[in-house]
Amino acid sequence: MAATGVTKVDRSLAMVTEALGAWDWLVIAPVALPLLGAAALLLIRKRIAWHAPASIAIMLLMLAADVGLLIRVWNEGPVHMAMGSWLPPFGIIFAVDTLGAVFATITAFIGLVCAVYATAEIDTTEYRYGYFTFYLLMLAGVTGAFLTGDVFNLYVWFEVLLISSFGLLALGSNPIQLDGTFKYAILNLVATTLFLITVGLIYGIAGTLNMADLAIKARSGDLGAPVMSFGVLLTFAFLMKAAAFPLNAWLPASYHVTRSASSALFAALLTKVGVYALLRTLVLVFPELGETFAPVLLIVANSTMIAGALGLLASNDIRRMVGWAVISGIGVILVGLGLGEAAALSGAIAYAIHSMVVMAGLYLLAGAMSWLAGTDSLFKMGGLAVHSPALLLCGLGIVLATAGLPPFSGLWPKAILVEAALSKAAYVTVGIILVNGLLTTIALGRMFAFGFWRAAQMERSELAPFPLLSKSRIVPVATIAIVSLAGGLYPEPWLAASRQAAAGLLDAATYINAVLPEG
Protein backbone atom coordinates (compact mmCIF):
# COMPACT_ATOMS: atom_id res chain seq x y z
CA MET A 1 0.00 0.00 0.00
CA ALA A 2 1.43 3.33 -1.05
CA ALA A 3 2.33 5.70 1.72
CA THR A 4 0.47 8.98 1.89
CA GLY A 5 2.62 12.07 2.46
CA VAL A 6 1.29 14.71 4.81
CA THR A 7 2.75 18.20 4.78
CA LYS A 8 2.94 19.81 8.19
CA VAL A 9 2.62 23.56 8.29
CA ASP A 10 4.07 25.65 11.08
CA ARG A 11 1.04 27.72 12.07
CA SER A 12 3.20 30.03 14.15
CA LEU A 13 4.47 31.59 10.93
CA ALA A 14 0.96 32.92 10.27
CA MET A 15 0.07 33.88 13.83
CA VAL A 16 0.64 37.01 15.90
CA THR A 17 3.04 36.15 18.71
CA GLU A 18 3.18 39.46 20.57
CA ALA A 19 0.67 40.21 23.32
CA LEU A 20 -1.82 42.96 22.54
CA GLY A 21 -1.55 46.23 24.45
CA ALA A 22 -4.28 48.67 25.41
CA TRP A 23 -3.53 50.88 22.41
CA ASP A 24 -4.05 47.90 20.08
CA TRP A 25 -7.62 47.42 21.31
CA LEU A 26 -8.30 51.06 20.45
CA VAL A 27 -8.30 50.02 16.78
CA ILE A 28 -11.52 48.02 17.16
CA ALA A 29 -13.12 50.03 19.99
CA PRO A 30 -15.07 52.40 17.65
CA VAL A 31 -16.80 49.34 16.14
CA ALA A 32 -17.05 47.16 19.22
CA LEU A 33 -18.72 49.86 21.34
CA PRO A 34 -21.83 50.39 19.14
CA LEU A 35 -22.14 46.63 18.50
CA LEU A 36 -22.09 45.89 22.22
CA GLY A 37 -24.40 48.84 22.83
CA ALA A 38 -26.94 47.56 20.31
CA ALA A 39 -26.89 44.15 21.99
CA ALA A 40 -27.33 45.76 25.40
CA LEU A 41 -30.34 47.73 24.20
CA LEU A 42 -32.00 44.48 23.16
CA LEU A 43 -31.56 43.20 26.70
CA ILE A 44 -33.24 46.32 28.15
CA ARG A 45 -35.74 46.77 25.31
CA LYS A 46 -38.66 47.17 27.73
CA ARG A 47 -36.93 49.97 29.65
CA ILE A 48 -37.32 52.51 26.89
CA ALA A 49 -36.43 55.44 29.15
CA TRP A 50 -32.88 54.09 29.24
CA HIS A 51 -32.41 53.78 25.47
CA ALA A 52 -31.55 57.37 24.55
CA PRO A 53 -29.22 58.11 27.51
CA ALA A 54 -27.43 54.78 27.07
CA SER A 55 -27.03 55.31 23.33
CA ILE A 56 -25.70 58.85 23.75
CA ALA A 57 -23.23 57.62 26.39
CA ILE A 58 -22.00 54.92 23.99
CA MET A 59 -21.55 57.50 21.24
CA LEU A 60 -19.54 59.71 23.57
CA LEU A 61 -17.26 56.73 24.25
CA MET A 62 -17.08 56.08 20.49
CA LEU A 63 -16.06 59.67 19.86
CA ALA A 64 -13.39 59.49 22.55
CA ALA A 65 -12.03 56.24 21.08
CA ASP A 66 -12.02 57.70 17.57
CA VAL A 67 -10.18 60.82 18.70
CA GLY A 68 -7.60 58.67 20.50
CA LEU A 69 -7.19 56.51 17.41
CA LEU A 70 -6.80 59.58 15.19
CA ILE A 71 -4.10 60.97 17.49
CA ARG A 72 -2.25 57.66 17.39
CA VAL A 73 -2.42 57.39 13.59
CA TRP A 74 -1.40 61.04 13.20
CA ASN A 75 1.71 60.47 15.33
CA GLU A 76 2.65 56.90 14.37
CA GLY A 77 1.26 56.35 10.88
CA PRO A 78 -1.09 53.51 9.84
CA VAL A 79 -1.86 50.87 12.47
CA HIS A 80 -3.60 47.52 12.25
CA MET A 81 -5.04 44.74 14.37
CA ALA A 82 -5.28 41.11 13.25
CA MET A 83 -8.54 39.32 14.01
CA GLY A 84 -8.07 35.97 15.74
CA SER A 85 -4.30 36.60 15.85
CA TRP A 86 -3.96 35.58 12.18
CA LEU A 87 -1.36 37.69 10.43
CA PRO A 88 -2.33 39.46 7.23
CA PRO A 89 -2.94 38.50 4.49
CA PHE A 90 -4.12 35.17 5.99
CA GLY A 91 -6.66 36.70 8.34
CA ILE A 92 -9.04 39.64 8.35
CA ILE A 93 -7.60 42.83 9.77
CA PHE A 94 -8.58 46.33 10.76
CA ALA A 95 -6.07 48.72 9.18
CA VAL A 96 -6.40 52.39 10.07
CA ASP A 97 -4.73 55.27 8.29
CA THR A 98 -5.48 59.00 8.45
CA LEU A 99 -8.37 58.76 5.99
CA GLY A 100 -10.15 56.03 7.92
CA ALA A 101 -9.49 57.62 11.31
CA VAL A 102 -10.79 61.05 10.21
CA PHE A 103 -13.95 59.61 8.66
CA ALA A 104 -14.59 57.42 11.71
CA THR A 105 -14.22 60.40 14.05
CA ILE A 106 -16.72 62.44 12.05
CA THR A 107 -19.08 59.45 12.03
CA ALA A 108 -19.13 59.37 15.83
CA PHE A 109 -19.64 63.15 16.03
CA ILE A 110 -22.52 63.13 13.55
CA GLY A 111 -24.07 60.12 15.25
CA LEU A 112 -23.98 61.94 18.58
CA VAL A 113 -25.50 65.15 17.21
CA CYS A 114 -28.28 63.34 15.34
CA ALA A 115 -29.04 61.16 18.37
CA VAL A 116 -29.70 64.26 20.47
CA TYR A 117 -32.09 65.52 17.79
CA ALA A 118 -33.78 62.11 17.62
CA THR A 119 -34.81 62.33 21.28
CA ALA A 120 -37.14 65.19 20.33
CA GLU A 121 -38.97 63.41 17.52
CA ILE A 122 -39.17 59.64 17.95
CA ASP A 123 -42.15 58.23 19.82
CA THR A 124 -42.69 55.39 22.27
CA THR A 125 -43.48 52.87 19.53
CA GLU A 126 -40.20 53.58 17.77
CA TYR A 127 -38.31 53.22 21.05
CA ARG A 128 -40.05 49.91 21.67
CA TYR A 129 -39.25 48.54 18.23
CA GLY A 130 -35.56 49.30 18.55
CA TYR A 131 -34.86 52.67 16.97
CA PHE A 132 -31.57 53.14 18.80
CA THR A 133 -30.60 49.50 18.27
CA PHE A 134 -30.76 50.04 14.50
CA TYR A 135 -29.07 53.39 14.98
CA LEU A 136 -26.04 51.94 16.79
CA LEU A 137 -25.79 49.05 14.34
CA MET A 138 -25.65 51.50 11.48
CA LEU A 139 -22.87 53.47 13.17
CA ALA A 140 -20.99 50.20 13.68
CA GLY A 141 -21.41 49.30 10.01
CA VAL A 142 -20.23 52.67 8.75
CA THR A 143 -17.26 52.78 11.13
CA GLY A 144 -16.30 49.20 10.29
CA ALA A 145 -16.26 50.07 6.59
CA PHE A 146 -13.91 52.97 7.31
CA LEU A 147 -11.52 50.90 9.43
CA THR A 148 -11.30 47.52 7.70
CA GLY A 149 -8.28 46.47 5.68
CA ASP A 150 -10.01 43.63 3.85
CA VAL A 151 -12.28 43.84 0.79
CA PHE A 152 -14.62 41.06 1.91
CA ASN A 153 -14.88 42.56 5.37
CA LEU A 154 -15.78 45.84 3.66
CA TYR A 155 -18.71 43.98 2.08
CA VAL A 156 -19.74 42.63 5.48
CA TRP A 157 -19.87 46.12 6.96
CA PHE A 158 -21.82 47.31 3.91
CA GLU A 159 -24.41 44.66 4.74
CA VAL A 160 -24.54 45.67 8.41
CA LEU A 161 -25.16 49.33 7.59
CA LEU A 162 -27.61 48.43 4.82
CA ILE A 163 -29.80 46.18 6.98
CA SER A 164 -29.80 48.64 9.87
CA SER A 165 -30.69 51.49 7.51
CA PHE A 166 -33.65 49.42 6.27
CA GLY A 167 -34.85 49.27 9.86
CA LEU A 168 -34.50 53.02 10.39
CA LEU A 169 -36.30 53.77 7.12
CA ALA A 170 -39.22 51.41 7.67
CA LEU A 171 -39.69 52.07 11.40
CA GLY A 172 -42.91 54.07 11.70
CA SER A 173 -46.56 54.12 10.75
CA ASN A 174 -46.45 56.24 7.59
CA PRO A 175 -47.25 54.25 4.40
CA ILE A 176 -44.87 56.44 2.39
CA GLN A 177 -42.02 54.95 4.43
CA LEU A 178 -42.60 51.53 2.89
CA ASP A 179 -42.52 53.02 -0.60
CA GLY A 180 -39.29 54.87 0.13
CA THR A 181 -37.74 51.83 1.81
CA PHE A 182 -38.58 49.64 -1.19
CA LYS A 183 -36.91 52.05 -3.63
CA TYR A 184 -33.90 52.37 -1.37
CA ALA A 185 -33.63 48.63 -0.81
CA ILE A 186 -33.86 47.48 -4.42
CA LEU A 187 -31.04 49.59 -5.84
CA ASN A 188 -28.80 49.21 -2.81
CA LEU A 189 -29.26 45.44 -2.83
CA VAL A 190 -28.29 45.42 -6.50
CA ALA A 191 -25.12 47.34 -5.63
CA THR A 192 -24.17 45.06 -2.72
CA THR A 193 -24.91 41.91 -4.74
CA LEU A 194 -22.68 43.17 -7.53
CA PHE A 195 -20.05 43.97 -4.91
CA LEU A 196 -20.21 40.44 -3.46
CA ILE A 197 -19.97 38.77 -6.87
CA THR A 198 -16.96 40.92 -7.74
CA VAL A 199 -15.27 40.11 -4.43
CA GLY A 200 -15.58 36.40 -5.22
CA LEU A 201 -14.17 36.87 -8.71
CA ILE A 202 -11.21 38.89 -7.42
CA TYR A 203 -10.43 36.26 -4.79
CA GLY A 204 -10.60 33.50 -7.39
CA ILE A 205 -7.86 35.19 -9.45
CA ALA A 206 -5.78 37.05 -6.87
CA GLY A 207 -6.01 34.55 -4.01
CA THR A 208 -6.29 37.39 -1.49
CA LEU A 209 -8.68 40.12 -0.43
CA ASN A 210 -6.34 41.99 1.88
CA MET A 211 -6.11 45.54 0.54
CA ALA A 212 -2.37 45.86 1.12
CA ASP A 213 -1.69 42.49 -0.52
CA LEU A 214 -3.90 43.40 -3.49
CA ALA A 215 -2.04 46.70 -3.80
CA ILE A 216 1.29 44.84 -4.03
CA LYS A 217 -0.02 42.45 -6.67
CA ALA A 218 -1.67 45.21 -8.68
CA ARG A 219 1.59 47.18 -8.80
CA SER A 220 3.66 44.12 -9.72
CA GLY A 221 1.41 43.21 -12.64
CA ASP A 222 0.49 39.81 -11.17
CA LEU A 223 -3.26 40.35 -11.38
CA GLY A 224 -3.61 40.92 -15.10
CA ALA A 225 -6.56 42.17 -17.10
CA PRO A 226 -9.32 40.04 -15.48
CA VAL A 227 -8.95 41.58 -12.03
CA MET A 228 -8.75 45.05 -13.55
CA SER A 229 -12.04 44.28 -15.31
CA PHE A 230 -13.52 43.25 -11.98
CA GLY A 231 -12.35 46.60 -10.64
CA VAL A 232 -14.72 48.22 -13.13
CA LEU A 233 -17.61 46.31 -11.53
CA LEU A 234 -16.48 47.47 -8.09
CA THR A 235 -16.39 51.06 -9.32
CA PHE A 236 -19.93 50.74 -10.67
CA ALA A 237 -21.19 49.32 -7.37
CA PHE A 238 -19.51 52.05 -5.34
CA LEU A 239 -20.79 54.81 -7.64
CA MET A 240 -24.30 53.47 -7.05
CA LYS A 241 -23.66 53.53 -3.29
CA ALA A 242 -22.41 57.11 -3.59
CA ALA A 243 -25.56 58.13 -5.54
CA ALA A 244 -23.56 59.42 -8.50
CA PHE A 245 -25.44 60.30 -11.69
CA PRO A 246 -27.14 58.41 -13.33
CA LEU A 247 -27.34 55.96 -10.41
CA ASN A 248 -28.83 58.46 -7.98
CA ALA A 249 -32.62 58.16 -8.36
CA TRP A 250 -33.01 56.13 -5.18
CA LEU A 251 -31.70 58.85 -2.85
CA PRO A 252 -34.23 61.71 -3.26
CA ALA A 253 -36.99 59.09 -3.41
CA SER A 254 -36.15 57.59 -0.03
CA TYR A 255 -34.19 59.77 2.40
CA HIS A 256 -37.07 62.14 3.13
CA VAL A 257 -39.57 59.47 4.24
CA THR A 258 -38.10 58.74 7.66
CA ARG A 259 -37.40 60.83 10.75
CA SER A 260 -35.21 63.88 10.26
CA ALA A 261 -32.50 62.51 12.55
CA SER A 262 -32.33 59.32 10.48
CA SER A 263 -32.34 61.30 7.23
CA ALA A 264 -29.48 63.44 8.53
CA LEU A 265 -27.50 60.35 9.50
CA PHE A 266 -28.05 58.82 6.05
CA ALA A 267 -27.11 62.03 4.23
CA ALA A 268 -23.93 62.44 6.24
CA LEU A 269 -22.67 58.87 6.16
CA LEU A 270 -24.13 56.43 3.65
CA THR A 271 -23.06 58.06 0.40
CA LYS A 272 -19.68 58.86 1.95
CA VAL A 273 -19.08 55.14 2.48
CA GLY A 274 -19.37 54.78 -1.30
CA VAL A 275 -16.97 57.70 -1.78
CA TYR A 276 -14.54 56.18 0.74
CA ALA A 277 -14.63 52.82 -1.06
CA LEU A 278 -13.88 54.57 -4.37
CA LEU A 279 -10.91 56.39 -2.84
CA ARG A 280 -9.59 53.20 -1.28
CA THR A 281 -9.93 50.99 -4.38
CA LEU A 282 -9.09 53.42 -7.19
CA VAL A 283 -6.19 55.21 -5.50
CA LEU A 284 -4.65 52.78 -3.02
CA VAL A 285 -5.47 49.29 -4.32
CA PHE A 286 -5.88 49.64 -8.10
CA PRO A 287 -4.12 52.90 -9.07
CA GLU A 288 -3.82 51.88 -12.73
CA LEU A 289 -7.58 51.44 -12.88
CA GLY A 290 -8.03 54.85 -11.23
CA GLU A 291 -5.82 56.50 -13.84
CA THR A 292 -7.66 54.76 -16.68
CA PHE A 293 -11.06 55.69 -15.29
CA ALA A 294 -10.17 59.30 -14.41
CA PRO A 295 -11.73 60.89 -17.54
CA VAL A 296 -14.93 58.88 -17.04
CA LEU A 297 -15.08 59.86 -13.37
CA LEU A 298 -14.69 63.52 -14.31
CA ILE A 299 -17.67 63.23 -16.68
CA VAL A 300 -19.67 61.49 -13.94
CA ALA A 301 -18.67 64.24 -11.48
CA ASN A 302 -19.77 67.01 -13.84
CA SER A 303 -23.06 65.24 -14.59
CA THR A 304 -23.74 64.63 -10.90
CA MET A 305 -23.15 68.28 -10.03
CA ILE A 306 -25.54 69.39 -12.79
CA ALA A 307 -28.21 66.83 -11.86
CA GLY A 308 -28.01 67.70 -8.17
CA ALA A 309 -28.25 71.45 -8.75
CA LEU A 310 -31.19 71.13 -11.17
CA GLY A 311 -33.02 68.74 -8.84
CA LEU A 312 -32.46 71.17 -5.99
CA LEU A 313 -33.94 74.02 -8.02
CA ALA A 314 -36.94 71.97 -9.16
CA SER A 315 -37.96 70.70 -5.71
CA ASN A 316 -40.60 72.37 -3.56
CA ASP A 317 -40.43 69.84 -0.70
CA ILE A 318 -37.65 71.01 1.59
CA ARG A 319 -36.62 67.53 2.70
CA ARG A 320 -36.44 66.30 -0.90
CA MET A 321 -34.37 69.40 -1.66
CA VAL A 322 -31.73 68.30 0.81
CA GLY A 323 -31.50 64.93 -0.94
CA TRP A 324 -30.60 66.72 -4.17
CA ALA A 325 -28.07 68.83 -2.26
CA VAL A 326 -26.39 65.61 -1.11
CA ILE A 327 -26.15 64.42 -4.73
CA SER A 328 -24.74 67.77 -5.80
CA GLY A 329 -22.03 67.48 -3.15
CA ILE A 330 -21.12 63.97 -4.28
CA GLY A 331 -20.40 65.42 -7.71
CA VAL A 332 -17.99 67.94 -6.19
CA ILE A 333 -16.17 65.16 -4.32
CA LEU A 334 -15.85 63.03 -7.46
CA VAL A 335 -14.06 65.91 -9.19
CA GLY A 336 -11.05 65.15 -7.00
CA LEU A 337 -11.05 61.49 -8.08
CA GLY A 338 -11.43 62.51 -11.71
CA LEU A 339 -8.46 64.88 -11.54
CA GLY A 340 -6.40 62.36 -9.59
CA GLU A 341 -3.46 64.43 -8.38
CA ALA A 342 -2.56 64.97 -4.72
CA ALA A 343 -4.05 68.46 -4.40
CA ALA A 344 -7.31 67.36 -6.03
CA LEU A 345 -7.58 64.30 -3.78
CA SER A 346 -6.97 66.42 -0.68
CA GLY A 347 -9.70 68.80 -1.89
CA ALA A 348 -12.08 65.88 -2.41
CA ILE A 349 -11.39 64.52 1.08
CA ALA A 350 -11.77 68.00 2.59
CA TYR A 351 -15.09 68.47 0.80
CA ALA A 352 -16.23 65.04 2.01
CA ILE A 353 -15.43 66.07 5.59
CA HIS A 354 -17.34 69.32 5.11
CA SER A 355 -20.25 67.55 3.43
CA MET A 356 -20.60 64.92 6.16
CA VAL A 357 -21.09 67.65 8.74
CA VAL A 358 -23.11 70.17 6.75
CA MET A 359 -25.50 67.72 5.03
CA ALA A 360 -26.49 66.38 8.43
CA GLY A 361 -27.11 69.96 9.57
CA LEU A 362 -29.15 70.76 6.46
CA TYR A 363 -31.45 67.79 7.05
CA LEU A 364 -31.86 68.69 10.72
CA LEU A 365 -32.61 72.29 9.72
CA ALA A 366 -35.21 71.14 7.19
CA GLY A 367 -36.72 68.85 9.82
CA ALA A 368 -36.98 71.67 12.36
CA MET A 369 -38.49 74.01 9.76
CA SER A 370 -41.10 71.48 8.64
CA TRP A 371 -41.97 70.62 12.24
CA LEU A 372 -42.51 74.29 13.10
CA ALA A 373 -44.48 75.00 9.94
CA GLY A 374 -46.47 71.78 10.01
CA THR A 375 -45.58 71.03 6.38
CA ASP A 376 -42.69 70.10 4.10
CA SER A 377 -44.00 72.25 1.26
CA LEU A 378 -42.24 75.54 0.55
CA PHE A 379 -45.50 76.98 -0.75
CA LYS A 380 -47.16 76.52 2.65
CA MET A 381 -44.29 77.80 4.78
CA GLY A 382 -43.62 81.23 6.19
CA GLY A 383 -43.20 83.29 9.31
CA LEU A 384 -40.59 81.10 11.00
CA ALA A 385 -38.19 83.99 11.70
CA VAL A 386 -40.63 85.53 14.17
CA HIS A 387 -41.19 82.28 16.02
CA SER A 388 -37.57 81.07 16.18
CA PRO A 389 -34.84 83.70 15.68
CA ALA A 390 -32.27 81.15 16.90
CA LEU A 391 -33.21 78.75 14.11
CA LEU A 392 -33.05 81.67 11.68
CA LEU A 393 -29.40 82.37 12.58
CA CYS A 394 -28.39 78.72 12.55
CA GLY A 395 -30.22 78.14 9.29
CA LEU A 396 -28.47 81.06 7.63
CA GLY A 397 -25.10 79.61 8.62
CA ILE A 398 -25.91 76.14 7.31
CA VAL A 399 -27.28 77.50 4.03
CA LEU A 400 -24.13 79.59 3.49
CA ALA A 401 -21.95 76.60 4.37
CA THR A 402 -23.78 74.33 1.92
CA ALA A 403 -23.45 76.91 -0.85
CA GLY A 404 -19.70 77.15 -0.20
CA LEU A 405 -19.76 80.81 0.79
CA PRO A 406 -17.49 82.51 3.36
CA PRO A 407 -16.88 82.48 6.23
CA PHE A 408 -18.01 78.84 6.44
CA SER A 409 -16.17 75.59 5.75
CA GLY A 410 -17.47 74.91 2.25
CA LEU A 411 -15.32 77.64 0.70
CA TRP A 412 -11.89 76.05 1.21
CA PRO A 413 -12.28 72.60 -0.40
CA LYS A 414 -14.06 74.10 -3.40
CA ALA A 415 -11.21 76.60 -3.82
CA ILE A 416 -8.70 73.73 -3.70
CA LEU A 417 -10.64 71.76 -6.31
CA VAL A 418 -11.02 74.77 -8.60
CA GLU A 419 -7.28 75.44 -8.39
CA ALA A 420 -6.51 71.77 -9.13
CA ALA A 421 -8.91 71.78 -12.10
CA LEU A 422 -7.31 74.94 -13.49
CA SER A 423 -3.86 73.36 -13.21
CA LYS A 424 -5.12 70.44 -15.33
CA ALA A 425 -6.88 72.78 -17.82
CA ALA A 426 -10.26 71.26 -16.87
CA TYR A 427 -12.07 74.51 -17.60
CA VAL A 428 -15.47 72.89 -18.15
CA THR A 429 -15.27 71.36 -14.68
CA VAL A 430 -14.30 74.73 -13.18
CA GLY A 431 -17.33 76.33 -14.82
CA ILE A 432 -19.65 73.58 -13.58
CA ILE A 433 -18.33 73.87 -10.00
CA LEU A 434 -18.99 77.62 -10.04
CA VAL A 435 -22.44 77.27 -11.65
CA ASN A 436 -23.27 74.48 -9.21
CA GLY A 437 -22.43 76.82 -6.32
CA LEU A 438 -24.56 79.58 -7.83
CA LEU A 439 -27.60 77.34 -8.38
CA THR A 440 -27.22 75.87 -4.89
CA THR A 441 -27.16 79.37 -3.43
CA ILE A 442 -30.31 80.34 -5.36
CA ALA A 443 -32.22 77.18 -4.41
CA LEU A 444 -31.31 77.21 -0.72
CA GLY A 445 -31.75 80.98 -0.56
CA ARG A 446 -35.28 80.43 -1.85
CA MET A 447 -35.90 77.80 0.81
CA PHE A 448 -34.56 80.12 3.51
CA ALA A 449 -36.53 83.16 2.31
CA PHE A 450 -39.81 81.27 1.92
CA GLY A 451 -39.50 79.56 5.27
CA PHE A 452 -38.26 82.43 7.42
CA TRP A 453 -38.90 85.83 5.84
CA ARG A 454 -42.21 85.36 4.08
CA ALA A 455 -45.35 85.97 6.13
CA ALA A 456 -47.15 82.92 7.48
CA GLN A 457 -49.34 81.45 4.76
CA MET A 458 -53.10 81.06 4.97
CA GLU A 459 -52.81 77.28 5.07
CA ARG A 460 -50.58 77.52 8.14
CA SER A 461 -52.84 79.97 9.95
CA GLU A 462 -55.65 77.44 9.87
CA LEU A 463 -53.55 74.98 11.83
CA ALA A 464 -52.55 75.04 15.48
CA PRO A 465 -50.26 77.88 16.62
CA PHE A 466 -46.52 77.51 16.07
CA PRO A 467 -45.07 75.01 18.57
CA LEU A 468 -42.09 75.84 20.74
CA LEU A 469 -38.79 74.59 19.34
CA SER A 470 -37.14 72.40 21.99
CA LYS A 471 -33.46 72.49 22.91
CA SER A 472 -33.09 68.95 21.57
CA ARG A 473 -33.93 70.30 18.11
CA ILE A 474 -32.11 73.63 18.12
CA VAL A 475 -28.87 72.58 19.86
CA PRO A 476 -27.84 70.00 17.20
CA VAL A 477 -28.53 72.49 14.38
CA ALA A 478 -26.60 75.20 16.22
CA THR A 479 -23.71 72.82 16.92
CA ILE A 480 -23.27 72.00 13.25
CA ALA A 481 -23.51 75.66 12.24
CA ILE A 482 -20.83 76.57 14.80
CA VAL A 483 -18.57 73.70 13.71
CA SER A 484 -18.84 74.78 10.07
CA LEU A 485 -18.11 78.39 11.01
CA ALA A 486 -15.07 77.31 13.05
CA GLY A 487 -13.91 75.19 10.11
CA GLY A 488 -14.19 78.19 7.83
CA LEU A 489 -12.36 80.57 10.15
CA TYR A 490 -9.67 78.06 11.20
CA PRO A 491 -9.34 75.65 8.26
CA GLU A 492 -5.74 74.53 8.67
CA PRO A 493 -6.27 71.56 11.06
CA TRP A 494 -8.83 69.74 8.93
CA LEU A 495 -7.20 70.75 5.64
CA ALA A 496 -3.90 69.37 6.99
CA ALA A 497 -5.71 66.13 7.86
CA SER A 498 -7.08 66.02 4.30
CA ARG A 499 -3.61 66.51 2.84
CA GLN A 500 -2.16 63.77 5.03
CA ALA A 501 -5.04 61.44 4.13
CA ALA A 502 -4.48 62.05 0.41
CA ALA A 503 -0.74 61.53 0.80
CA GLY A 504 -1.42 58.25 2.59
CA LEU A 505 -3.55 57.02 -0.31
CA LEU A 506 -0.90 57.94 -2.87
CA ASP A 507 1.98 56.57 -0.79
CA ALA A 508 0.89 52.94 -0.83
CA ALA A 509 4.29 51.75 0.41
CA THR A 510 3.73 53.24 3.87
CA TYR A 511 0.32 51.55 4.19
CA ILE A 512 1.67 48.24 2.85
CA ASN A 513 4.67 48.24 5.19
CA ALA A 514 2.46 49.02 8.18
CA VAL A 515 0.07 46.17 7.38
CA LEU A 516 2.51 43.66 5.83
CA PRO A 517 5.91 44.30 7.44
CA GLU A 518 7.47 41.51 5.39
CA GLY A 519 5.94 42.92 2.15
UniProtKB/TrEMBL annotation:
- Note the InterPro entries from the entry: CPA3_Na-H_Antiporter_D (IPR050586), ND/Mrp_TM (IPR001750)
Name the keywords, alphabetized. Answer: Cell membrane, Membrane, Transmembrane, Transmembrane helix
- Report the membrane topology from the UniProt record: Multi-pass membrane protein
Q: Which domain of life is it from?
A: Bacteria
All residue ranges annotated as the NADH:quinone oxidoreductase/Mrp antiporter transmembrane domain in the record: 149-440
Where mainly located? membrane
Q: Specify one Pfam family.
A: Proton_antipo_M
The reply on keyword Nucleotide-binding is no
Q: Name one GO cellular component term.
A: plasma membrane
Question: Where in or outside the cell?
Answer: Cell membrane; Membrane
Which ranges does the record mark as transmembrane? 25-44, 56-74, 86-117, 129-148, 154-172, 184-206, 226-251, 263-286, 292-314, 321-339, 351-372, 384-405, 425-453
Sequence similarity: Belongs to the CPA3 antiporters (TC 2.A.63) subunit D family.
Full protein name: Na+/H+ antiporter subunit D
From which source organism is this entry?
Answer: Notoacmeibacter marinus
Query: What is the taxonomic lineage of the source species?
Result: Bacteria, Pseudomonadati, Pseudomonadota, Alphaproteobacteria, Hyphomicrobiales
